[in-house]
Design goal:
single chain, about 220 residues, 5-stranded antiparallel β-sheet
Amino acid sequence: MGQTVSAIIKAVDNQEEKKKEAQDALNALVTVANDKQIIHYQSVVSNATDAKLLPIHHVVTKMQRINCGVSKDPSGLKKNISDAVKNFVKGEIVDGLAAIASEALDVLMGNVAANSSELSNYTITVGKLGGIGRIDFYMYYYKYTSNALTSVAEDCLVTSLVISSVDIRDLDENDVRVIVQNNYSGKLEGETDEASNARLEKIVNLIVDAVKKSKGIST
């Protein structure tokens, strides 16, 4: 999905003035992104037991990625998201998360105001060992307008992820179905309605089975 910030800077090694301008602009974006990542993380932690959200038990890890030139290569987003979460979720759910990210990027690029747009949400997952998790994601998209900058990096996307374990005491099958339907409804490229519905049902079954196993309920 596009290029990393360091790759963008290297690409203008022989254009000193452009390099300096790109370096300054990208460094400023990194600073903004880091501030927004902190705010996002604090929001996740402070709302850990919010009754309106799926409650979390412990934060497991957090990560942030910044990639430039995303509008030129939006298809690369799937691999980027897959690489980031593949160690935390079962393979069947990775495609669902990629679909969420692709849909989010479409929304971000279609709603730019004052050069930027942002979006945050969360969803439920199940790991390779059957653990129920919650992934909170925050995406910040910035589109450059300066001619000097657009020739180097047309746009940049900051993706911040917070991965947590879930408090499942009050979680039931209906909750899982509503969350999956709401958050995994984005389609993969070329996917039919029938295939999408089958994929959603498979995700529901994976999570429901994992919840029952964690609660000691026979399936």
